TrEMBL record:
Coiled-coil parts of chain: 1102-1129
Chain intervals with Basic residues compositional bias: 1170-1182
Official protein name in the record: Elongator complex protein 1
One Pfam entry name: HB_ELP1
GO biological processes: tRNA wobble base 5-methoxycarbonylmethyl-2-thiouridinylation
Domain ELP1 TPR as annotated: residue spans: 913-1075
UniProt KW keywords: Coiled coil, Cytoplasm, Elongation factor, Nucleus, Protein biosynthesis, tRNA processing
Domain ELP1 three-helical bundle: start-end pairs: 1085-1256
UniProt keyword Transcription regulation present: no
Transmembrane segments: none
């Protein structure tokens, strides 16, 4: 569905320069000079051309490839020859040579410098005495095939070393000769009574091949794109009596014959192998039996062959071929376009053909200027859509691009050029696959107004559909334009899809040459009038762009014929620009070759620059008056369109993306597009594209058009077929537009058709929907549609309160309208709420049974369809209405043997006990307990058992609060808490229940001795019992190392000073112990208890100090060893070269590199078992990860954490030492000496630990990293490789004062 349209043209006219001494007779023959060959110099960006002249021989010309340089070719050099017939001109980049091959057999080279200048004269590197009939270079310029005058095939290298030489004509088929083993042949089959006599071939004369008088008899050579094979077309004689016919022979790149095709009647010498390699193209004139003057049928076509020589289809050229001759074929480098050079008496044309869906389209027809002949055609080897043509005096370069001609969004019309026909399809109403179409508009060939002759080109190079109205315009390169009103039908019906009428046609001014683009735009002035504009882009004689604008103002509708009211011409000072499609006539813009965008001022006939693209964009579209500077949104786009508020584009990643225009405008105005695809400074456009909605499409899909009115996007696959999809973003735009307009039914049907969640109707504008519920119900009306809507809303992700409000509002409106009609919808509204209100639905059935009993059965069946029957049965049972229960059970087809005995048993019970049984059956224990509490006092014990069984203590307290049964409930609650070891809570409940005995037990278990002894004193327990309790509590506190509290209990309630001093001394609380001894005048306890316990405490602290010092020294030594190993043997440290890990499957469920995986284990492993690991196993492995097992990479980190814990332990020991030292100083001389020693030991420990910390956590100076997204991602990726010092923070030593100066003096 794409058209091949011209994007640039360059014409270089030859101006021969003759020597001043040239004779008059020689100068009179200057017109005989003609350009006959041209070639591209890809490395230098040049075109070289060779001209033939009877006087000067062969002359070489040079011109740049740049389409914007229209200068005349520069003469580079010449080569004198008796027979200046050029066969080949080629630039070989590897040797920097221009190589010319002539018919007389000479091979001439010129050496080139980096600018394309000749640095040497012509050098004849070889000559063939018999002459050369044909020559062809391989695509990579490494091999050269020559066919000499004595019909020998020579294969040479680029340095002209002969690799092979053999006769061209041979009887051998080739290496790929087929082998027939006779399977399936008629001779091997049974033929009954008739026998096999009929299988004998009857003698008949072979088919006579008529020789083509127009065949020049010369062989042709063509290479495949990869240079692996080449094909030769030559004349051979089938029999001595018959004429010569063409035969194709395929050779390898070593000149070994592969296959030979059969002689094909009418086959012509033209030959071109498709670069992709699947087809060999040639031409054929169809002939028929009869006299020689009647054999030609006029059918002239292109035929294709496979590499094995078998025919493979083809196509016929358009028109009568009896007065024309196909001179040359050439494939574009991407194999998409076939150029056919047709020689005619009144002027040559070059046709460009493309294929799609097994149909060949004639896309372009290039006519030769000045009614002469083309002398050569070539495609650029790298720029696939660049064509090089030469005529006798001109070098013509044409650049093409692909373009989809799509029209107004309301019709979705697309136009495709196919010769003199324009194929039109309105995709809003019809989706017709190509090559078919809804309408074929036959374009009559226009005539030249000055001469009355037909234009040479019969195919319009460009067509344009209006983006706002149903108009079509076509322009011809000779300067003619036509415009049609298509009159497309957009309503359903059996009439024709469209009825085009020609409304305007004219010839353009003669100053406008090379017309290559037309744009038609229009806008409505009012309901009866319209303004139309047609802009034509061409060039003047110097190649500068020129725009001719025809305006048709205030045209009366409907359109029948037009007369231009104004003609404007805008001359531009640059070449090969392009008009940007637009909707409104006043928004005409022109894009320069460098990407600059210019606004065309129609009234002033001038232009001014408004912005610039980063590069020239052949496909562009102007959405409105806003244009933005130098921004790129994506780099892999192959097609795009603008529709429904989105920039829709397909990518080479095989997806279609929908970029909201608002988002795009925000990115563009911020200037943060994706200017650099590899840098990190501009990622806004890329990040935004990740948030845009995407949809996967078939590989290679391209956008044909978008039809917003039908919410469809038409895509074309690479093979040519079409696919229409309804993307969610386009559907949502139409749905939202309908919702804003209050078209509830249309929006609902669109959501239903395209499977959009109906909750969007509520979410889009909740307030507007809630206010328009009556209108919504009135438009939808259908009960099934309302049920579908309510069900979808109930299952959506909307908040529960929103769902409830919507359901209640819709239900209320339906009840007000007609209860009997909308009973199913009302039931649906009850059921789909969250939580569902099944009871209200059943109540509605009871109410309906009294109003309209005939509807109850259907309503019950419907609600059973919505809700599980067993659940509905339980709901009805929970309403204590047995008639409703029976009605549900009967319609649910439940077995009466299952529920009737149960219902009879319930009917026999008292009311509240019956309710209790029902609630207990339905597993509603709280409600059951309340019903049981109402059943009477005789059921109280059962209620206590029930609440204890179901742990309904809070509900029971609320039920019996303020009654005489409250204390009993508290007792059960307290006992339950006591059993759960919640002693503090249990004690509080027992106190509330006035159960002092159990309260004291609970306090004792909770070690809350203050509350315990308060309660003991309130209950007036005797002294012995209190003392017994005190000793029990003191022992428990002592075992919990709560020494001070244990001593307090012993002193206050057991009156045992000795045991109190014992507890305090064990807890290093010597200050309190000495105070109590002095208070109670017990000095004997100093020597008896304090002295020995102080020495024991000092010994314990000394042991701790020695243990910490030993641990520190071992860990520092091991850490030093590990760090030396990490520096000297990093592979061994990280286990990178472990031979047992070579078979480890690193494709595990953890996204880490293989090296990161192996560094966590030294155990041998052959296979990965990650897929079999449970979550428990994985957690166990994670715990092992930092266990610090010796020999693993985590050992260093484990040691660092151990040092941190050692610092914390040292701080604790420091506090104990600080408490003990004053008493060691004061108790005795022996104690004082122990204190001095303890202070020295601990001081040494602190010094050693502080030095170790400084040495361990010493870090080299590193530059401050730049905070960026890339840096953070790198840090995340290398998280497992981070040094342990960076994961374990350096600990801080305590700086508090702990030592005694007196002991320091003693030490001194």
């Amino acid at each position: 569905m794409r058209n091949l349209v011209p994007s640039a043209i360059k014409v270089s006219t030859l101006k021969p320069t003759y020597n001043e001494q040239t004779s008059d007779s020689a100068s009179s023959n200057c017109g005989q000079e003609s350009i006959v060959a041209a070639t591209f110099d890809v490395d230098r960006g040049l075109i070289f051309a060779a001209s033939e002249d009877a006087q000067f021989g062969v002359r070489i010309w040079r011109t740049p490839v740049d389409p914007c340089e229209w200068n005349a070719p520069i003469l580079c050099g010449s080569f004198s020859s008796i027979d200046p017939k050029v066969l080949s001109l080629r630039v070989v980049g590897e040797s920097a040579q221009l190589i010319l091959v002539t018919r007389s057999g000479d091979t001439v080279t010129w050496q080139l410098d980096e600018f394309g200048e000749f640095i040497s004269g012509p050098d004849i590197v070889g000559s063939v005495d018999s002459g050369i009939l044909s020559v062809e270079w391989s695509p990579d310029d490494t091999l050269l095939v020559m066919i000499t005058g004595d019909e020998n095939l020579i294969l040479m290298t680029s340095t002209f070393d002969v690799l092979s030489e053999a006769p061209l004509h041979t009887e051998d088929f080739g290496e790929d000769a087929p082998i027939n083993v006779g399977w399936g042949a008629k001779e091997t089959q049974f033929h009954g009574s008739i026998g096999r006599a009929h299988l004998k071939p009857s003698p008949q004369s072979p088919t006579q091949i008529q020789e083509d008088p127009n065949d020049d008899g010369l062989p042709r050579v063509s290479w495949r794109g990869d240079g692996a094979y080449f094909v030769v077309s030559s004349l051979v004689r089938q029999t001595p009596q018959s004429g010569k016919g063409r035969v194709l022979r395929v050779y390898s790149n070593e000149a070994r014959l592969q296959s030979t095709a059969e002689i094909v009647a009418g086959l012509e010498p033209n030959l071109s192998w498709r670069p992709s390699g699947n087809l060999i193209a040639s031409t054929q004139k169809e002939t028929r039996a009869g006299p020689s003057d009647t054999q030609q049928t006029g059918k002239h076509g292109v035929v294709f062959f496979e590499r094995n020589g078998l025919p493979h289809g083809g196509f016929n050229l358009r028109g009568d071929g009896r007065d024309s001759r196909i001179k040359h074929l050439a494939w574009s480098s991407d194999s998409n376009v076939l150029a056919v050079h047709i020689e005619r008496a009144h002027g040559d044309v070059v046709q460009l053909w493309t294929t799609g869906n097994y149909h060949w389209y004639l896309k372009q027809e290039i006519s030769v200027p000045l009614s002469t002949h083309f002398t050569s055609i070539n495609w650029h080897p790298e720029v696939s859509m660049r064509l090089l043509l030469t005529s006798s005096l001109q070098i013509i370069q044409q650049d093409y691009t692909w373009e989809t001609c799509a029209g107004a969004n309301d019709t979705g019309c697309v136009g495709v050029i196919d010769g003199q026909k324009i194929l039109l399809t309105p995709f809003r109403t019809q989706n017709i696959p190509p090559p078919m179409s809804s309408h074929q508009l036959l374009v009559n060939t226009p005539t030249d107004a000055s001469s009355g002759d037909l234009f040479l080109s019969q195919v319009p190079p460009h067509i344009s559909l209006s983006q706002s109205h149903d108009l079509l315009a076509a322009v011809w390169q000779e300067g003619h334009i036509m415009m049609w009103a298509l009159q497309t039908r957009i309503t359903p019906g059996g009439e024709a899809a469209m009825n085009p009428i020609l409304i305007w046609s004219t010839n353009l001014p003669w100053e406008l040459c090379h017309c290559r683009q037309v744009l038609v735009s229009s806008k409505n002035d009012d309901n009866d009038h319209r303004t139309i504009s047609a802009a034509i882009l061409g060039s003047d004689v110097n190649g500068n762009d020129r725009i001719v604008i025809h305006d048709f103002e205030h045209v009366i509708l409907p359109l029948t014929s037009l007369e231009a009211t104004r003609l404007r011409t805008i001359s531009l000072q640059q070449k090969n620009g392009r008009l940007i499609p637009h909707e409104v006539p006043r928004h005409l813009a022109w894009q320069a070759p460098d990407g600059s965008i210019f606004e065309v001022h129609r009234e002033e006939e001038s232009y001014s620059q408004i912005c610039s693209f980063t590069e020239y964009c052949p496909s562009s579209q102007r959405v409105d008056a806003r244009l933005f500077n130098r921004t790129s949104l994506a780099s892999n786009v192959n097609s795009f369109t603008v529709a429904s508020g989105f920039v829709i584009f397909t990518t080479t990643s095989h997806d279609v993306q929908f970029a909201p225009l608002e988002s795009v405008v925000a990115i563009l105005t911020s200037g943060q597009g994706m200017l650099s695809l590899t840098g990190d400074e501009n990622k806004t456009g890329e990040l935004a594209s990740q948030a845009w909605q995407k949809r996967r499409v078939e590989r290679g899909s391209r956008i044909v058009t978008a039809v917003p009115s039908t919410m469809s996007l038409v895509l074309q696959m690479p093979r040519g077929n079409l696919e229409t999809i309804n993307p969610r973003p386009m559907v949502m735009e139409v749905v939202k537009s309908d919702l804003d307009a209050g078209l509830w039914r249309k929006a609902f049907l669109a959501c239903r058709k395209h499977r959009i969640d109906f909750s969007i109707i509520v979410e889009h504008n909740q307030e507007a929907f809630m206010a328009s519920i009556p209108a919504f119900v009135e438009q939808i009306e259908d009960v099934d549609y309302l049920n579908l809507f309510l069900t979808s809303v109930g299952r959506s992700q909307l908040p529960a309160d929103v769902v409830a409000n919507v359901c209640d509002s819709v239900r209320q409106d339906l009840e007000d309208r007609n209860l009997t009609k909308y009973v199913n919808s009302i039931l649906t509204a009850y059921v789909v709420k969250s939580p569902p209100d099944h009871e209200a639905g059943l109540v509605l059935l009871l109410r309906l049974r009294g109003v309209n009993p005939s509807l109850v059965d259907e309503a019950v069946k419907y609600i059973i369809f919505l809700v599980d029957a067993d659940r509905l049965f339980d709901t009805a049972l929970g309403m204590y209405d047995f008639s409703l229960v029976l009605m549900v059970a009967q319609h649910a087809q439940k077995d009466p043997r299952e529920y009737l005995p149960f219902l009879r048993e319930l009917r026999a019970l008292p009311q509240y006990y019956q309710h209790f049984k029902i609630d207990d059956h339905l597993k509603r224990p709280a409600k059951a307990l309340r019903s049981l509490s109402l059943a009477g006092p005789e059921y109280f014990q059962e209620a206590l058992d029930y609440l204890d069984t179901h742990q309904l203590h809070d509900e029971a307290l609320a039920i019996w609060q303020g009654t005489d049964k409250y204390m009993d409930v508290l007792g059960i609650y307290g006992a339950w808490l006591f059993d759960r070891h919640e002693y503090h809570q249990a004690a509080t409940v027992f106190v509330e229940a006035s159960d002092a005995r159990r309260a004291m037990i609970s306090y004792e278990r909770a070690l809350q001795w203050q509350e315990l002894f308060e309660l003991c004193l309130k209950e007036q327990l005797d002294g012995d019992e209190i003392m017994e309790i005190a000793y029990r509590i003191a022992d428990e506190l002592f075992s919990k190392k709560r020494f001070s509290e244990s001593a307090r209990v012993l002193l206050d309630y057991a009156k045992d000073v000795r045991q109190a001093i014992h507890s305090l001394a064990q807890g290093n609380e010597f200050a309190e112990a000495r105070r109590i001894i002095t208070l109670h005048a017990k000095p004997e306890l100093i020597e008896e208890l304090v002295f020995p316990y102080a020495l024991d405490c000092r010994a314990q602290i000394g042991d701790d100090i020695n243990e910490m010092r030993e641990q520190l020294r071992k860990q520092v030594a091991r850490l030093t060893e590990l760090r030396i190993k990490k520096v000297e043997e990093p592979d061994a440290f990280y286990n990178l070269d472990d031979p047992t890990l070579h078979n480890v499957d690193v494709m595990t469920d953890v996204s880490i590199a293989p090296t990161t995986f192996t560094r966590y284990t030294v155990a041998p492993s052959a296979t990965s078992k990650a897929s079999k690991r449970s979550s428990k196993t994985k957690r166990k492995m994670e715990r092992k990860l930092g266990s610090g097992r010796k020999g693993t990479v985590d050992e260093e980190e484990y040691i660092l954490k151990s040092v941190m814990k050692l610092v914390e332990r040292c701080a604790t020991t420091q506090g104990e030492t600080r408490k003990l030292l004053p008493h060691l100083l004061q108790l005795s001389q022996a104690h004082r000496e122990e204190g001095v020693a303890l202070q020295v030991e601990f001081d040494y420990l602190q010094s050693e630990l502080r030095a170790a910390i400084e040495d361990i956590w010493k870090k080299p100076d590193e530059p401050t990293p730049v905070d960026s997204w890339a840096t953070r991602m790198q840090e995340k990726a290398k998280e497992q490789l981070v040094e342990p010092l960076q994961r374990v923070p350096k600990p801080e030593m305590s700086k508090s004062e702990w030592s005694l100066k007196l002991l320091q003096q003693k030490l001194a």
